[in-house]
Amino acid sequence: MNDEQQSLLLNSSSRFSPPQGVKLSYGTAGFRADASLLPSTVYRVGILAALRSLKTGSIIGLMITASHNKVSDNGVKIADPNGGMLSQHWEPFADALANAPSPQHLLVLINEFVAKEGILMDGVSHAEVLLGRDTRPSGDALLEAARQGVTSIVGAVATDMGVLTTPQLHWMVRARNKGVQASEQDYFEQLSSSFRCLEDLIPAEKSKLDGVNNKVVVDGSNGVGGVKLKVLRSLLNALVVEVRNSSEDGGVLNDGVGADYVQKEKVVPHGFDSKDAGIRCASLDGDADRLVYFIVPPESSGRIDLVDGDKILSLFAIFIREQLSFLNENEGIKNSHQARLGVVQTAYANGASTNYLKQLGLEVNFTPTGVKYLHEKAAEFDIGIYFEANGHGTVLFSESFVGWLEARTKEISSGSKGSEGEKAALRLLAVSKLINQAVGDALSGLLLVEVILQHMGWSIHRWNELYHDLPSRQLKVKVADRNAVITANAETVVVSPPGLQEAINAETGKYHQGRCFVRPSGTEDVVRVYAEASTQEAADTLSNSVAKLVDQFLGLGSS
Ligand code: 16G
Ligand code: MG
C-alpha cells in the first residue's frame, strides 16, 4: 500500500469511531444493530466492498437494510459478483474489520489481508460498488458512510442506486457483471414482460380470469416492497394488485405487519380484517426478500391460514415438473435434454411438505438455515428450487439449461406456439427471466405464484389444500453460550454437548409423528427449539420438554 493510500485510509477512518463495548458479527445475513451503532461498521464494509471488487475485477453490491428488524435498527450486507451473498471465506475479515479498535489496527488488518489475498492496490486498478438502501430513516446517513468507505480505496467508485429492495440490488449487480441492461427500469421490464409471456401461454380453457381470482392484496410491511410493487403493477394487464402498508402510508416499518410477523404470529396484520375473508393475501418483509401468502378466515378470530414458503416451493415444483414432463414427452430423442430438477429445504420445512415433495418423486435436499447454504445447493441442479418456510427462496436455472432453452425456443417460428413441448420450453425460459436468479425476491416470487395459479386455474384455497401442515411449535431458550451447541446433518442432530441428542431422541420418540431439533440462532443470542407432532398439544409439550433439556445441558446456571 503506498503512502497516498495509507493516509487516505487513516484520515477517513478517523471520522468513524467504532462503538465501545459492542462486538459485531457478520452473521447469517450481514451486520445488524441499532442504527446509531453502525456508521463505523458501514464505513468499514464500504472498504471491504471496494477490496472485494478489486480482488474479483467485478462490480460488488452494498445494501443498507435490517430486513424485518424494528425501524430503529439498520444493517449492511454485501452482494458478490454473481449477485449472491458474500463469499463465506471473507466473513472473518468482515468481522475483524468491524471490530478493529482504531484506525491503526484497521490499517494493519487491511495490509495483512490484501497481502494474503494477493489484492493489487496499485492505484491503477478500478473498483466499483453499487449502493442501495431501504426506506429506514437512518439509511441516508449510513449510505454516506458506505460511500466514504468505498472511496477511501484509491481507484474505487461508489454508485448510489437509491432506495431499493434488497433483491433489486442483487439483481443489478448480477446484470451489470453479465454486461446486460441493469437499471431499475430494466428490472421492472424484465419481470413484467416475462410475466406477460407466461400469461400468454396459459392454456386457453383456463385463461378466463373470473372477477374473484384476478386480485391479490399485498401487505408491504410499511417498507420499500410496497413502493416498488406499485411501479411493477402499472406494467401488468389483467392482474389487480392492491397494495396496503406501503412505506408512504405512514405506518411503522415491520410493526404488526410484514412476512416475518405474519409467519411467526399467524395473525392478521394491521390494515387487514374480516372484510378480507377468503381473498388471496400476501405479505412481504421489510426489504422484500421474503414472501408468504395467507387467508383471513370468515370468523373474526384474528388468526390466519398461513400459506408459507414450503407451499410456495410446492407450487413452483408442480408447475416446473409439469413443464419438464411436457418437454420430455414431446421432444423425442432428437431434442431430449434430461434436466435435473432438485428442491432444497431446511429442517424448518414442515414434515408434511417434505413428504408431499417426495411423493411427487422429487429429490429433496436439506441444508443448514440461511439463504447462502440453500442457494449454493440449489445451484447444483439444472433447475434448483429452494425455500425456507419463512418465505426466503427462489428458483435457479443452470446456464447450460438456459442456453438449451434459448436454442430450443429460437427454432419456434414466431406466432406459432406449436406443440406442448415447445410451449413448455417457452414457459421455462420465461420463468428463468421472471424469477430472480441472484437471490430470493418477493416481487418476482409473487408474480410467479400469481401466474401459476392462473395457469392451474386454482384459488388460494385449492393451493393451500395440497397438503396439511403438521402442527408445530418454535421456542427460544436463553443459554450461557449458544455456540456451545454444535449441530450436524443440516442442523437436525446435536453433536455437542454430548448426551443432549440422545435425550432429545428419547423425548421425541414418545410422540406420534414427532420430530424435534435445536440449533443456535444466527441472528439472536438464543438457542431455538422446533418441534412437530400429530397434534398441536403434542407439539407444544414436546417443544417445552426439549427446551427444558436445553436449559439443563446449557442453562444460564442461575437456577
Ligand atoms: C437470516 C437469514 C434467513 C434465516 C434467518 C434465521 C438470509 C438472507 N437471511 O434472516 O435465511 O432463515 O436468518 O435466523 O440468509 P435465526 O438463525 O435467528 O434462526
Ligand atoms: Mg428480508
TrEMBL record:
Does Isomerase appear among the keywords? Answer: yes
Q: What is its EC number?
A: 5.4.2.3
What does the note under cofactor report? Binds 1 Mg(2+) ion per subunit.
GO BP annotation list: carbohydrate metabolic process; UDP-N-acetylglucosamine biosynthetic process
- The protein's name in its UniProt record: Phosphoacetylglucosamine mutase
Q: Where is this region: Disordered?
A: 1-20
Which residues take part in binding substrate?
A: E388, A389, N390, R519, P520, S521, G522, T523, R528
Catalytic machinery residues = S67 (phosphoserine intermediate)
Q: Where is the Alpha-D-phosphohexomutase alpha/beta/alpha domain?
A: 57-89, 126-177
Domain Alpha-D-phosphohexomutase C-terminal residue range list: 476-548
Its annotated pathway? Nucleotide-sugar biosynthesis; UDP-N-acetyl-alpha-D-glucosamine biosynthesis; N-acetyl-alpha-D-glucosamine 1-phosphate from alpha-D-glucosamine 6-phosphate (route I): step 2/2
Q: Name one GO cellular component term.
A: mitochondrion
Which positions are tagged coiled coil?
none
Where composition is biased (Polar residues), the residues are 1-17
Q: Which CDD domains match?
A: PGM3 (cd03086)
Instruction: Explain the purpose of this protein.
Output: Interconverts GlcNAc-6-P and GlcNAc-1-P.
Co-factor requirement: Mg(2+)
What InterPro entries does the database record attribute to this sequence? A-D-PHexomutase_a/b/a-I, A-D-PHexomutase_a/b/a-I/II/III, A-D-PHexomutase_C, A-D-PHexomutase_C_sf, AMG1_II, AMG1_III, PAGM
Q: Which reaction does it catalyse?
A: N-acetyl-alpha-D-glucosamine 1-phosphate = N-acetyl-D-glucosamine 6-phosphate
PANTHER family attached to this UniProt entry = PHOSPHOACETYLGLUCOSAMINE MUTASE (PTHR45955)
Family (UniProt): Belongs to the phosphohexose mutase family.
Keywords, comma-separated and alphabetical:
Isomerase, Magnesium, Metal-binding, Phosphoprotein
Q: Where is the Phosphoacetylglucosamine mutase AMG1 domain?
A: 182-292, 308-458
Q: Does the keyword Isomerase apply?
A: yes
Q: What class of enzyme is it?
A: isomerase
Q: Which GO terms describe its molecular function?
A: metal ion binding; phosphoacetylglucosamine mutase activity
